Amino acid sequence: MIRFGLTRGVTAAAMMLLLSAVLFFSTEALPGDAAGVVAGADATESERAEIRKRLGLDEPAVARYVTWLGDALTGDLGRSSAAGRPVAEVLASRFGNSVVLVGLAVAGIAVLATTFGLVAGLRAGRLGDRLLSSMTVTLIALPEFLLATGLVVALAHQGGMFPAVSIFPPGDSPWQHPDMLVLPVTGLVLGGLGVATRLVRAAVVSVAESPAIEQARLDGESGVRLAWSYVLPAAAAPGIQGLAVMAAGLLGGSLVVETLFNYPGVGSELARAVTYRDAAMVQGLGLALAGSALLILFVGDLLAGLLNVRSRPASWRRAERGAP
Amino acid sequence: MNLVEVASLSLSSAERRVLSDCSLTIRPGERVGLVGRSGSGKTALAHALLGYTRQGLARVGGTVRVAGHDPFSPAGARRVRGRLAAYLPQDCASALPAEHRVGWVLDRAARRSGVARAQLASFRGNALERMGLPADLARAFPHQISGGQAQRVALASALAAGAELLVLDEPTSGLDPSTTEDLIHLLRTAVGHAAMLVVSHDMDVVDRLTHRRIAMTHGGLTDADVPDRSAAEGPSVPRRPVEEVLDARAVEERTCVLRAEGVRGGPGGEHVLRDVNLTLGAGECVAVVGASGAGKTTLARVLAGTLEPSGGRLWLNGTPQPWSVARRSAADRLSVAHVDQDSRAALNPRETVGKALERACRAAARGGLTPPPVAELLSAVALPRSAAGRRPGELSGGERQRANLARAVAAGPRVLLCDEVTASLDGATEREVLDMLATLREERGLAVLLITHSGAVAATADRCLALVDGALGPPATHLRPSGCRRGADQGVSGD
Amino acid sequence: MTRAILGRLLTAALLLTMLVALAGPWLPLPSPTERVGVPFEPASWSRPFGTDVLGRDALARTVHGGRTLVLQALAATALGSIVGLVVGTCAGLARGGPLKGVLRVVDGLAAVPPLLITLLIAAGRPGSDFAVLVAVTLVSLPFSVRVIGAATARLAGLAYVRTALARGDGRFAVIRHDVLPNIASEAWAEAGLRFIAATQLCATAGFLGLGAPAPAANWGRLVRENAVGAGAQPWPVLAPALLLVVLALGMTLTADRLTSPVRRPRNERNTAP
């Protein structure tokens, strides 16, 4: 188990290194680089060169990547060229808001997808399954921004039930404005629900065909008892892994939803930084989001590994000796 | 009153009728054996007694009553399943819920039969003790116990539920002889007055456990008291005595095209083969027989060079060779051809036979040989010319196996490894293919290694060896095919 | 029955949408970037969809907004599928070694949110549709490689591929004769799925403001810039949104039909009973 965790950890770290390189080298050549922004639009070429030198931009890219990565590891993500604030400060003020948003959405999806997936998977091929599958296919097919825009148009513009934007004073916690959380969270839930339901259903269907479930049915188990005590424990490991992939995907979805609702999170800040060509900000926030995605996937893998009973020792006697 | 009454029950899948018009009665306490070939519908009938059908199967007619309840109705299923009737599956180990401890499984069974929560612990202890299992087994997870123990746990949970009918599906399959004895003893002593339906292909087990037996063929029940023994035991094996097989080393070094020494290994690091020694002379046909799972196919794949063993040496045409075919020279890798068991998987379904033969001929040309034209190859395996334009799916099973042989021959091999090439063919087609192999040997001096489980097929070989415990040796007396002649044992066949 | 009719209707709508997207800019309509009235003017005979947030003709903008999107998605799918076929078949046939390592890295990459990667790659070249194309191709590549690699690995275990490799046929001959014909249907279905994902990503990229800058029309961007007025004048949002929905659902159903297990290979006729 420890070895399993270590290999996964090393893999995740390697992926992180790869992603950070992709991120750095794709954005370090932003046309409006820091020198151009700091020097102003009408600076002469020599002035720009001077600033480049001061900012260390004349060094080779690889050397700058190593410096940047080293700084990032110590918590220094550089300074935003547009706003002038340290990137780490912006990240700290936005990160919690995004965690609340994505966390709420993940919780909602986990409950809904497990219910729908169990219902559909245990009745594969029947009416309930077909209806749920049609819903799933539709949700998967539609891009998140369409679903979220649809919500805004229907519930905010036409219905007037919830605010169409989620701007609240800096320093406030999103919990103080629950009405502003409803639409963004619903948008994210709709965006991830299709994929998650499909994954849970697939896990349930493959479990439901197993000899253990057939035997449970032959033993007279049915309904909620069958689903809760037999199917769910067996489907838990693949289901958790699926939910982790979905949760990581929600970080992408949060980009769209936060932007649409002007929600003060990491995603909307990143989208804004892309528009303003703020290289340091894009790199810092991108690194944070990619790191979070990999962390979620890693934790999902670990949980799935822990849930797998077969990873326990082959002899029950020795394994239980130390237990109270 | 009868405990079980099945009246003209029919089950059907989308493609075919699985059970047709089955009627069966079991009196309380009666023990009935149900025998028949695999795939004849035994398990479907056993399931139906509990009102269960697998996905894709549907009841199209007839009724089932267990103690007066209809298990196909929701209310009846609640009374029957896990209460009046208990089902013991074929592979008990995988049928226990992997995420729960053994004790939990027993508790669930006890709760179903209405045991109070307070008495669960003592009840569980008794149940385990009655099965001769240690009390602390309750703390084990299913993957931590043996197959025999899993079966006892399943039996304990069936008895814990107080079932009046036990349905046992192949209770002894996969058990070694001594475990089988223990189980039979247990079933005769511990089950009490419950009625039993024992589904098995093992006539001996059925005879010892039951009062009467019924046979199932193609979904129909025959109340025959003396069922067709061979139907349940697989193909019959001739039991004529044969003389001793002599040492394979008698084959002269000069004519030896393939020699393997001390081969050990198997797929996934498993040592299916322990110490295999084999010599094949030019034009010689050697049969290798053995039980399924003995490693016959592994041996073929090792000799063909597609599965690397963990030890042993190989010579082809007198020169030592690496095991992996990828490291052999272009000419050497052609000298062994593997003709696969399953002709459907052996031929590319999207390629015409002619194209497949052409590609094999090109491989021969690369190895410095002059391959025969495609038309000649087709006539050598008695396929019509028009077969060249057809795809494997448009050929019959026998034609496909011939095309498979033709492709192997096209690459100009010295040795053909034929792995159960006739297993899926009917008697007449089998004889044709074997005759054709004999002709190919004669005309092209091919050595043939004939891997088979059938005594009749092995009888056509010059020599016969048995693969037992990972080593090749003379076949046990009753397995010896009739045709292994003494003269051929010298390995001199091209006389 | 109704399902079949619905399916056919959706297929027809899908074809029509593709036609509008590709040939739309040639239609005799007002310029999509010129202001022709006040913002969010209601629909009329001369302007069936009214005007958008800046008073431009909403119909013209909608009709112009699909071509880049569809072409980007098509090109990304084609590029991704071709590279995916090459890498996937080679990796699938390889036994161990560096190519199997490729598959493992690819597996890891496929789990990172595609939208995040698209944004980060395309952010480096703002205002460029080509950058979006490259980003979407790179994002879809791991999925293609994974599916094709798995399909090839399944074939590599079959006797006819083993036989061909054992007698010394070249790797590319085996891929051409034995692998490609037998994974063709899977490869097409996978390309269909990639096209759906690419369409979504390209539209979302437009929504986030990546790709060609402001005055250029793009269905994703049209939805965003006109959402503010959707209460008063829904058409400038509804029209591009509906076209995107038809594109996404139509492609999904088509791909579903391609991958459904009901379709059996033709050569199952001679199964001996």
Can you put this structure into words, describing what you see?
By secondary structure, chain A is mainly alpha-helical. Chain A contains 13 helices and no strands. Chain A has a domain at 93-269 and 280-314: Orthogonal Bundle (MetI-like fold), CATH 1.10.3720. Mean pLDDT of chain A is 81; it is low at 318-324. Chain B has 495 residues and is an alpha/beta fold. Chain B folds into 2 domains: 4-231, Rossmann fold, CATH 3.40.50.300; 242-487, Rossmann fold (3-Layer(aba) Sandwich), CATH 3.40.50.300. Helix content of chain B is 30%, strand content 23%. Chain B is built from 16 helices and 19 strands. In chain B, the strands form 4 sheets. A 6-stranded mixed beta sheet of chain B has the order 5-6-7-3-8-9, with helices on both faces. In chain B, strand 1 (4-12) and strand 2 form a beta hairpin. By secondary structure, chain C is an all-alpha fold. Chain C is built from 10 helices and no strands. The longest helix of chain C is centred in the C-terminal third of the chain and has 37 residues, at 171-207. Classes of the chains: A mainly alpha (324), B alpha/beta (495), C mainly alpha (273). Chains in contact: A-B, A-C, B-C. The B-C interface holds B 304-306, 325-326, 330, 333-334, 337-338, 340, 342, 345-351, 355-356, 359-360, 363, 366-367, 391-397, 407-408, 411, 424 and C 158-160, 162-169, 173, 177-178, 181-182, 265-270, 272.
- Tally the beta strands of chain A: 0
Summarize the main sheet of chain C.
Answer: none
Order of helices and strands of chain C: HHHHHHHHHH
Q: Please state the structural category of chain C.
A: mainly alpha
Tally of separate helices of chain C = 10
Question: How can the largest sheet of chain A be summarized?
Answer: none
Structural class of the helix and strand makeup of chain A? Answer: mainly alpha
Q: What is the share of helical residues of chain C?
A: 55-70%
| Uncertain parts of chain A | 318-324
Oligomer: heterotrimer
Taking all Cα atoms into account, the compactness measure Rg of chain C is 22 Å
The gross shape of chain A turns out to be globular
CATH architecture of the domain at 93-269 and 280-314 in chain A: Orthogonal Bundle
